[in-house]
Fold this protein.
Amino acid sequence: MQGTASAWLMTSLTSSTLMVALVQTSTTLPVFLLALPAGVFADVFNRRRLLLFTQSWMLTAAAALGWLTLSGLTTPWLLLILTLLLGLGAAINAPSWQAIVPELVSPPEIPSAVALNSVGFNASRAIGPALGGLVLGAFGAGVAFLMNAASFLGVMAVIFLWRQAPRESSLPTEHIIGATRTGIRYVRHDPALRAVLIRVVSFITCASALMALLPLVARKELGLSSEGYGYLLAFFGAGAVAGGVVLQGLRRKSSADLLIALGTLVFAAALIVVAYVHIFAVVCTALVGAGAAWLALISSFNSSVQTVVPSWVRGRALSMYMLVLFGGIAAGSAVWGTAAAFLGLPLALAAAAATLLLGFAATAAYHLPDVTTLDLSPSMHWPAPAAAIQPHPEKGPVLVMIEYLIDPAQAHPFKLAMKKMRSFRLREGAMRWRLFVDAAEPRRYLETFMLESWIEHLRQHERVTVADRELEKTVHAFHTGPEPPVVSHFLGETLPKEGEHRT
């Protein structure tokens, strides 16, 4: 309703096509630009309080826009500024909103909860514009804005009454810049999360062709009015809602990879139908299938991100997912729009379908993780690091060395296990990692990794999950010494300047 009323009001305030287009830009651009910082906020700050703040922010912006519009004071630039403020609130709200899902439901229920979220979104996308048009016609844009403002009150009431489990940590809050670096490092070194993001890119850059070119198909190929185009969007949304209804049953009978394969085939077929069949009823049927496939794939990707990362970095992981998703939509829309200009609409859509299938084949080796039984709760089994001195929390770098005694006959499987250990250390905060073997004693191996500061190493102790502990047990099983592997901690020292003396 807000989007419909904003766009319509701008056409009443100015005849500038640029200003009308900027209404959509002011809504979506903050989501792209603030995706990563918003994810950091979701992990660093209390998510419940952050959600209450962003909902209050958006309520204020929508209420102000409604009051100004009813008072006849809204100008094109005021409309853009307040729409931008709403977009900023939505951008900061999104990662926290998604990150709390695993705090509300059990791990096996996460895919269903994510699918239900997607159903709600697609249902609102189908119903909202029509409802917005009715409110506009009966009461005007100002009332539509005030109704949007009132909707935030219900959300705020639920969040206020929700009692979030407290985070158990005695350590100070991460700095924003350091938390950003840690989040990027985690994404770089977590194979399961990288696999999900690669599959997202493969799908979304090609699938975006449908929504990008559908307005042109409606006008040029089907000869429809704006009302007819609205019906096409409604059928797509209805397909997404229907897909959500049957999705849970499909998940019980098939793996995530099989679901992605079926969804990809259905979406590619829908692209071909839209490209070459110019019968309205047939195109609507294809869009129902495309909507169902879209929801199946997007909710599968989203739930995989939700369940493959622990709570301490979930907001940042979701923000990277959103960055890849929206970036892929933007880039794909530009690519296929350009292709349509040179090749024509049918060939561009057919090329998108072919590329979608090729991309699926190329990324089939990146399996979506089946992590319903993966325990990502903190294990807290690492003892506090032994230190005769009490280092300043920001002192660093910190070098950690772990000594293993390995049977030479087991050297190869040990190295394979340490390859997984390397990913674990780097994604949990290490800047560098290396495995050494003693040239004089081939049984003696030395694992080393470096962290930015002492406080970062203490955080590393809190980040270890129960699943990580299993990997650690696997590595330690190769150790043949009479005592557990020896762990040493070294603090970086600053050399004195030339001529400096201290007593």
Notes: Residues 398-491 form a domain with the Alpha-Beta Plaits fold (CATH 3.30.70.100). The chain has 18 helices and four strands.
